[in-house]
Amino acid sequence: MTTPIFVLGEALMDCIAQADGRLLPLMGGSPFNMARAAALRGASVAYLNPLSNDLFGQGMAQLLLRDGVALRGGQSRLPTSLAVVQVTDGQPSYGFYREGIADRDYTVEGITAVLQQQKTPGILHTGSLLLIPPEHHKVLSILKAAREMGWTISVDINLRPKVAHDLAQYVQALREVIALTDWLKASDEDLETMGFADVAIGKSARLVSELRAGVAPGALSRVALTFGGDGAYLDIEGQTHSLPVPRITVADTVGAGDTFWGNTLADWALQPADAAARVGDTLALSMKAAAINCTRQGCQPPTLAQVLAF
Protein backbone atom coordinates (compact mmCIF):
# COMPACT_ATOMS: atom_id res chain seq x y z
CA MET A 1 0.00 0.00 0.00
CA THR A 2 1.41 3.40 -0.99
CA THR A 3 1.51 6.42 1.32
CA PRO A 4 -0.06 9.72 0.16
CA ILE A 5 2.02 12.91 0.09
CA PHE A 6 0.33 16.22 1.00
CA VAL A 7 2.25 19.42 0.19
CA LEU A 8 2.03 22.74 2.04
CA GLY A 9 4.03 25.53 0.43
CA GLU A 10 4.27 28.20 -2.22
CA ALA A 11 3.43 28.33 -5.91
CA LEU A 12 4.87 31.32 -7.73
CA MET A 13 5.91 32.55 -11.13
CA ASP A 14 9.66 32.51 -11.72
CA CYS A 15 10.22 35.49 -14.00
CA ILE A 16 13.63 34.67 -15.45
CA ALA A 17 15.68 37.63 -16.68
CA GLN A 18 16.79 37.32 -20.31
CA ALA A 19 19.85 38.85 -21.94
CA ASP A 20 17.70 41.45 -23.76
CA GLY A 21 16.00 42.58 -20.52
CA ARG A 22 12.76 40.65 -20.98
CA LEU A 23 11.35 38.44 -18.22
CA LEU A 24 10.42 34.87 -19.18
CA PRO A 25 7.66 33.57 -16.85
CA LEU A 26 7.99 29.96 -15.70
CA MET A 27 5.87 28.29 -13.04
CA GLY A 28 7.77 27.47 -9.86
CA GLY A 29 8.02 27.53 -6.10
CA SER A 30 9.93 24.84 -4.23
CA PRO A 31 6.98 22.82 -2.79
CA PHE A 32 5.04 23.29 -6.05
CA ASN A 33 8.00 21.84 -7.96
CA MET A 34 8.43 19.06 -5.42
CA ALA A 35 4.76 18.06 -5.72
CA ARG A 36 5.07 17.76 -9.49
CA ALA A 37 8.29 15.75 -9.26
CA ALA A 38 6.80 13.29 -6.76
CA ALA A 39 3.63 12.84 -8.82
CA LEU A 40 5.59 12.30 -12.04
CA ARG A 41 7.56 9.63 -10.20
CA GLY A 42 4.22 7.89 -9.54
CA ALA A 43 3.29 8.90 -5.99
CA SER A 44 -0.17 10.01 -4.84
CA VAL A 45 0.26 13.75 -4.23
CA ALA A 46 -2.13 16.52 -3.10
CA TYR A 47 -1.39 20.26 -3.03
CA LEU A 48 -2.88 22.06 0.00
CA ASN A 49 -2.44 25.79 -0.65
CA PRO A 50 -4.93 27.95 -2.55
CA LEU A 51 -4.05 28.95 -6.09
CA SER A 52 -4.98 32.34 -7.47
CA ASN A 53 -7.87 32.66 -9.88
CA ASP A 54 -5.70 34.98 -12.00
CA LEU A 55 -4.17 33.80 -15.28
CA PHE A 56 -0.98 32.56 -13.62
CA GLY A 57 -2.89 30.63 -10.96
CA GLN A 58 -5.11 28.98 -13.55
CA GLY A 59 -2.04 27.86 -15.47
CA MET A 60 -0.48 26.43 -12.30
CA ALA A 61 -3.63 24.50 -11.50
CA GLN A 62 -3.64 23.03 -15.00
CA LEU A 63 0.03 22.03 -14.74
CA LEU A 64 -0.42 20.35 -11.37
CA LEU A 65 -3.45 18.43 -12.62
CA ARG A 66 -1.62 17.44 -15.81
CA ASP A 67 1.24 16.01 -13.77
CA GLY A 68 -1.14 14.09 -11.51
CA VAL A 69 -1.31 16.33 -8.43
CA ALA A 70 -4.71 16.65 -6.71
CA LEU A 71 -5.78 20.19 -5.72
CA ARG A 72 -7.08 20.43 -2.16
CA GLY A 73 -6.60 24.15 -1.45
CA GLY A 74 -9.23 25.72 -3.68
CA GLN A 75 -8.96 29.15 -5.30
CA SER A 76 -8.08 32.58 -3.96
CA ARG A 77 -8.93 36.03 -5.30
CA LEU A 78 -5.46 37.21 -4.27
CA PRO A 79 -2.76 37.37 -6.96
CA THR A 80 -0.04 34.83 -7.68
CA SER A 81 3.32 35.37 -6.00
CA LEU A 82 6.24 36.43 -8.21
CA ALA A 83 9.98 35.77 -8.14
CA VAL A 84 12.43 37.58 -10.43
CA VAL A 85 15.26 35.16 -11.21
CA GLN A 86 18.72 36.11 -12.44
CA VAL A 87 20.71 33.09 -13.68
CA THR A 88 24.49 33.52 -13.72
CA ASP A 89 26.71 30.61 -14.81
CA GLY A 90 23.76 28.28 -14.34
CA GLN A 91 23.13 29.38 -10.73
CA PRO A 92 19.86 31.23 -9.93
CA SER A 93 19.44 34.18 -7.56
CA TYR A 94 15.98 35.40 -6.57
CA GLY A 95 13.95 38.49 -5.67
CA PHE A 96 10.51 37.76 -4.23
CA TYR A 97 7.15 39.58 -4.21
CA ARG A 98 5.20 37.77 -1.50
CA GLU A 99 2.76 40.13 0.26
CA GLY A 100 -1.01 39.72 -0.11
CA ILE A 101 -0.73 36.66 -2.35
CA ALA A 102 -2.78 33.52 -2.94
CA ASP A 103 -0.58 30.80 -1.46
CA ARG A 104 -0.61 32.54 1.95
CA ASP A 105 -4.41 32.76 1.87
CA TYR A 106 -4.99 29.73 4.12
CA THR A 107 -5.79 29.06 7.77
CA VAL A 108 -4.41 26.57 10.28
CA GLU A 109 -7.93 25.28 10.86
CA GLY A 110 -8.59 24.81 7.16
CA ILE A 111 -5.42 22.81 6.52
CA THR A 112 -5.88 20.75 9.68
CA ALA A 113 -9.43 19.88 8.61
CA VAL A 114 -8.15 18.56 5.27
CA LEU A 115 -5.59 16.38 7.04
CA GLN A 116 -8.25 15.03 9.40
CA GLN A 117 -10.36 13.96 6.43
CA GLN A 118 -7.61 11.59 5.31
CA LYS A 119 -8.44 8.14 6.70
CA THR A 120 -4.81 7.03 6.83
CA PRO A 121 -2.12 9.57 7.82
CA GLY A 122 0.49 10.14 5.13
CA ILE A 123 3.52 12.36 4.53
CA LEU A 124 3.06 16.10 5.06
CA HIS A 125 5.75 18.10 3.26
CA THR A 126 6.57 21.78 3.66
CA GLY A 127 9.52 24.16 3.52
CA SER A 128 11.03 27.14 1.77
CA LEU A 129 9.21 30.49 1.94
CA LEU A 130 6.47 29.38 4.35
CA LEU A 131 9.13 28.94 7.05
CA ILE A 132 9.99 32.66 7.09
CA PRO A 133 8.72 34.54 10.18
CA PRO A 134 5.97 35.34 10.94
CA GLU A 135 4.42 32.79 8.52
CA HIS A 136 6.23 29.96 10.29
CA HIS A 137 3.89 30.28 13.29
CA LYS A 138 1.01 28.97 11.16
CA VAL A 139 3.20 26.19 9.80
CA LEU A 140 4.33 25.15 13.29
CA SER A 141 0.71 24.89 14.43
CA ILE A 142 -0.13 22.72 11.43
CA LEU A 143 2.90 20.48 11.93
CA LYS A 144 2.11 19.95 15.62
CA ALA A 145 -1.49 19.02 14.79
CA ALA A 146 -0.35 16.73 11.97
CA ARG A 147 2.10 14.91 14.23
CA GLU A 148 -0.66 14.30 16.77
CA MET A 149 -2.71 12.74 13.96
CA GLY A 150 0.16 10.43 13.02
CA TRP A 151 1.47 12.19 9.91
CA THR A 152 5.14 11.93 8.93
CA ILE A 153 6.67 15.40 8.55
CA SER A 154 8.97 16.16 5.61
CA VAL A 155 10.83 19.48 5.31
CA ASP A 156 13.09 20.92 2.63
CA ILE A 157 14.75 23.91 4.32
CA ASN A 158 15.49 25.78 1.06
CA LEU A 159 16.53 28.84 3.04
CA ARG A 160 16.05 32.24 1.37
CA PRO A 161 18.05 34.74 3.47
CA LYS A 162 17.45 37.72 1.16
CA VAL A 163 13.69 37.54 1.78
CA ALA A 164 13.86 37.61 5.58
CA HIS A 165 13.88 40.88 7.51
CA ASP A 166 15.86 39.29 10.37
CA LEU A 167 18.14 36.36 9.51
CA ALA A 168 18.65 35.35 13.16
CA GLN A 169 14.88 35.07 13.67
CA TYR A 170 14.60 33.11 10.42
CA VAL A 171 17.26 30.60 11.52
CA GLN A 172 15.57 30.22 14.90
CA ALA A 173 12.25 29.57 13.14
CA LEU A 174 13.93 26.89 11.02
CA ARG A 175 15.30 25.19 14.12
CA GLU A 176 11.81 25.12 15.63
CA VAL A 177 10.46 23.51 12.46
CA ILE A 178 13.35 21.03 12.26
CA ALA A 179 12.58 19.88 15.81
CA LEU A 180 9.18 18.65 14.51
CA THR A 181 10.60 17.04 11.36
CA ASP A 182 10.95 13.34 10.57
CA TRP A 183 12.54 13.57 7.11
CA LEU A 184 14.78 16.53 6.29
CA LYS A 185 16.54 17.81 3.18
CA ALA A 186 19.17 20.54 3.44
CA SER A 187 21.67 21.95 0.97
CA ASP A 188 25.21 23.01 1.75
CA GLU A 189 24.08 26.63 1.37
CA ASP A 190 21.26 26.05 3.89
CA LEU A 191 23.68 24.66 6.46
CA GLU A 192 26.27 27.40 5.97
CA THR A 193 23.63 30.12 6.36
CA MET A 194 22.36 28.43 9.52
CA GLY A 195 25.87 28.64 11.00
CA PHE A 196 27.23 25.12 10.52
CA ALA A 197 31.01 25.00 10.11
CA ASP A 198 33.16 23.10 7.61
CA VAL A 199 30.26 22.17 5.33
CA ALA A 200 31.44 19.60 2.77
CA ILE A 201 30.22 16.24 1.53
CA GLY A 202 33.11 14.53 3.29
CA LYS A 203 31.78 15.93 6.59
CA SER A 204 28.21 14.70 6.04
CA ALA A 205 28.12 12.22 8.92
CA ARG A 206 29.19 14.92 11.37
CA LEU A 207 26.70 17.41 9.96
CA VAL A 208 23.82 14.94 10.31
CA SER A 209 24.94 14.18 13.86
CA GLU A 210 24.91 17.90 14.68
CA LEU A 211 21.43 18.29 13.21
CA ARG A 212 20.13 15.37 15.26
CA ALA A 213 21.78 16.62 18.44
CA GLY A 214 19.29 19.46 18.70
CA VAL A 215 16.08 17.45 18.37
CA ALA A 216 14.14 14.84 20.32
CA PRO A 217 15.11 11.16 19.99
CA GLY A 218 13.48 9.64 16.93
CA ALA A 219 13.24 12.91 15.00
CA LEU A 220 15.23 13.37 11.77
CA SER A 221 15.21 9.63 11.11
CA ARG A 222 15.99 10.36 7.45
CA VAL A 223 18.27 13.19 6.31
CA ALA A 224 19.44 14.13 2.83
CA LEU A 225 22.24 16.64 2.31
CA THR A 226 23.00 18.07 -1.14
CA PHE A 227 26.27 19.72 -2.12
CA GLY A 228 25.66 21.13 -5.61
CA GLY A 229 28.20 19.79 -8.07
CA ASP A 230 29.95 17.76 -5.34
CA GLY A 231 27.11 15.26 -4.95
CA ALA A 232 24.66 14.23 -2.24
CA TYR A 233 24.46 12.17 0.95
CA LEU A 234 21.52 10.21 2.36
CA ASP A 235 21.14 8.84 5.89
CA ILE A 236 18.19 6.56 6.68
CA GLU A 237 18.20 5.56 10.32
CA GLY A 238 21.98 5.28 10.32
CA GLN A 239 22.31 3.55 6.94
CA THR A 240 24.21 5.99 4.73
CA HIS A 241 25.29 6.45 1.13
CA SER A 242 26.85 9.25 -0.92
CA LEU A 243 27.22 9.71 -4.67
CA PRO A 244 28.81 12.18 -7.09
CA VAL A 245 26.70 14.14 -9.55
CA PRO A 246 26.07 12.42 -12.92
CA ARG A 247 27.91 13.99 -15.85
CA ILE A 248 25.52 16.16 -17.87
CA THR A 249 25.35 19.38 -19.86
CA VAL A 250 23.67 21.84 -17.49
CA ALA A 251 21.00 24.22 -18.82
CA ASP A 252 20.34 25.58 -15.33
CA THR A 253 19.83 24.24 -11.81
CA VAL A 254 16.35 25.68 -11.17
CA GLY A 255 14.28 23.06 -9.34
CA ALA A 256 17.09 20.52 -9.07
CA GLY A 257 16.77 20.15 -5.30
CA ASP A 258 12.98 20.00 -5.55
CA THR A 259 13.20 17.25 -8.15
CA PHE A 260 15.71 15.37 -6.00
CA TRP A 261 13.51 15.49 -2.89
CA GLY A 262 10.29 14.84 -4.79
CA ASN A 263 11.75 11.63 -6.18
CA THR A 264 13.12 10.66 -2.77
CA LEU A 265 9.75 11.13 -1.05
CA ALA A 266 8.00 9.29 -3.88
CA ASP A 267 10.40 6.36 -3.50
CA TRP A 268 9.56 6.12 0.21
CA ALA A 269 5.83 6.65 -0.35
CA LEU A 270 5.62 3.97 -3.03
CA GLN A 271 7.78 1.50 -1.09
CA PRO A 272 7.26 2.23 2.61
CA ALA A 273 9.08 -0.90 3.81
CA ASP A 274 12.83 -1.49 3.96
CA ALA A 275 13.85 2.07 3.07
CA ALA A 276 17.16 1.76 4.89
CA ALA A 277 18.09 -1.31 2.85
CA ARG A 278 17.52 0.67 -0.37
CA VAL A 279 19.43 3.82 0.61
CA GLY A 280 21.91 3.56 -2.27
CA ASP A 281 19.29 2.84 -4.92
CA THR A 282 17.03 5.62 -3.64
CA LEU A 283 19.85 8.15 -3.75
CA ALA A 284 20.96 7.08 -7.23
CA LEU A 285 17.51 7.43 -8.75
CA SER A 286 16.89 10.78 -7.10
CA MET A 287 20.20 12.16 -8.34
CA LYS A 288 19.47 10.94 -11.87
CA ALA A 289 16.10 12.71 -11.76
CA ALA A 290 17.74 15.94 -10.59
CA ALA A 291 20.40 15.63 -13.30
CA ILE A 292 17.76 15.26 -16.00
CA ASN A 293 15.99 18.35 -14.67
CA CYS A 294 19.27 20.29 -14.92
CA THR A 295 19.46 19.57 -18.66
CA ARG A 296 16.16 21.49 -19.09
CA GLN A 297 15.41 25.19 -18.63
CA GLY A 298 13.40 25.88 -15.49
CA CYS A 299 11.95 23.13 -13.34
CA GLN A 300 10.86 20.27 -15.59
CA PRO A 301 11.01 17.05 -13.53
CA PRO A 302 11.25 13.75 -15.41
CA THR A 303 8.93 10.78 -15.31
CA LEU A 304 10.02 7.49 -13.76
CA ALA A 305 10.49 6.00 -17.24
CA GLN A 306 12.86 8.84 -18.16
CA VAL A 307 14.84 8.34 -14.95
CA LEU A 308 15.18 4.61 -15.54
CA ALA A 309 16.29 5.24 -19.13
CA PHE A 310 18.91 7.84 -18.11
Question: Low-confidence stretches at least 5 residues in length (pLDDT < 50)?
Answer: none
Series of secondary-structure elements, N-terminal to C-terminal: EEEHEEHEEEEHEHEHEHHEEEHHH
Any idea of the CATH topology? UDP-N-acetylmuramoyl-L-alanine:D-glutamate ligase
Largest sheet composition: 9 strands, mixed
Number of strands: 15
From the helix content, strand content and strand pairing, which structural class follows? alpha/beta
Strand content: 15-25%
Task: State the CATH class.
Answer: Alpha Beta
Count of helical stretches: 10
Task: Assign the CATH superfamily.
Answer: Ribokinase
Rg value: 18 Å
Sheet with the most strands: spatial strand order: 6-4-1-10-11-12-13-14-15
What overall form do the CA principal axes indicate? globular
Distance between the amino and carboxyl termini: 27 Å
Secondary structure elements and their pairing?
Blueprint: E1 5-7, E2 12-17, E3 23-28, H1 30-41, E4 45-47, E5 51-52, H2 55-67, E6 69-71, E7 75-76, E8 81-88, E9 91-97, H3 108-117, E10 123-127, H4 136-149, E11 152-156, H5 167-178, E12 183-187, H6 188-193, H7 204-213, E13 222-226, E14 232-236, E15 239-243, H8 256-270, H9 279-294, H10 304-309
Parallel strand pairs: 1-4, 1-10, 2-8, 4-6, 5-7, 10-11, 11-12, 12-13
Antiparallel strand pairs: 2-3, 8-9, 13-14, 14-15
Helix pairs in contact: 1-8, 3-4, 4-5, 8-9
In short:
The protein is of the alpha/beta class. Helix content is 37%, strand content 23%.
